[in-house]
Amino acid sequence: MKVDILIKNASELLTVKGASKKPKTGKQMKELGIIKNGQIAIKDGKIVFVGSSKTQVRFVGQSKEIHSISPPSDFQAEKVIDASGKVVMPGLVDPHTHLVFAGSRHEEYREKIGGATYEEIAQKGIDAGILYTVEMTRKASKEELIKKGLKDLDIMLAYGTTTIEAKSGYGLDIENEIKILEVNKELNEKHPIDIISTFLGAHTIPKEYKLKKQGFFRELFSFFSLRKERKRLRKEYVELVKEMLKEIKERNLARYCDVFCDKLGFSVKETKEILEEAAWVPLNEEERIMGFGLKIHAEQTDHLGGAGLAAELRARSADHLDYILLDEIKKMAKSGTIGVLLPGVTYHLMEMVEKDFFPAQVREMIYNGLAVALATDYNPGSSNTQSMQAVMELAARLYRMTPAEIINAATINAAHAIDKAQEIGSLEVGKKADIVIFDVPQYEMLINNFGVNLVNTVIKNGRIAIEK
Fold first, then answer.
1. How far is CA 353 from CA 349, 356, 359, 398, 400, in A?
2. Given a cut of 60, is residue 215 above it in pLDDT?
3. pTM exceeding the 0.85 threshold for the entire prediction
């Protein structure tokens, strides 16, 4: 059989194949479908063979006659890759990023390292927070954002990521939210990495919908009127987000709608209002409106109830989940909502001590059948990394996840979190040939080693994208 690429002699070929079409949960998280001395053949961008590099045999009837089955020598490949001493596995999938933004917040981070609060940072005249990134992104041209996005995607690819989800959320008005989503679309066309777009207009309240700070006594004497005005402005912005949804849907610029359900973002009530507007809503037997998949930033800085709402709305994923309750874990498991965990945030914001309970929470998630995925949450403020390898390393050290659980969470379950598991996330015949070869002989070494890039080769859509 003629094929385009033949990878052979892999020390360990991790198929990550599951027992069903659902994401892996519970004990399945420990299964990687390992083939020793493995081989995989690629033709026309798809996987056409997965198996052993050794000639396979079977016995027929009582005569014990030996018949060979698809010996490796049957493959005639244009390109042969000898993966001796290496691990071959699916390309990494990053189901939560904020890819498109402008500006840097390194000065803010320098002050955070020293223990400064946002108020103290502001007093020093240092621009900080989401709204600073919004300001910089609004000023940036599409060309500038595309240039930066391509650079980020190159880094992601070099570290083994082959598919990502990318959110808007640094525009917070119709013009700039659409600009970001259009940049996502152009980046998807220009770069090998596949990009799934998410609309996050409900990231935070923009400055034009916030009251300017009043003097202390004026605020004291005008408490009720000011509270009423703040409530009015929030409602106006929620309505604007709903209006944005319509235009974004008409232009087909996003697959999902996300909301930052947090005390720093939007209430459970506001989140539900936006997501119900975005969801598939039947009008009659033939017509539906909107049709966005649903995602929620939930329980990041405190418990608010976003995880329970995600289960109620059967959202595709709820992300962060630092302060999730056991009852909500069980509800999400029952609804099929995937829990996307973001250890880069805990690490970058130096929250390890205050969130030392989280390893037990993650164990409860897996034990109670919640499908767990991993993502970078790449953004300039709370998780400034493009590397899924780094996230995998952190998941072991911060969450105490095992290497097998981590790999499943970064491949097949991450693919389910963006509804792409039928195409990517495991090495199976018929799936896209998104494959990474790591320069280690055993998969546990990926997690044991840290701080270096172990990628040897990246194959995207059946073509070699990175080769060392």
1. 11, 5, 12, 10, 15
2. no
3. yes
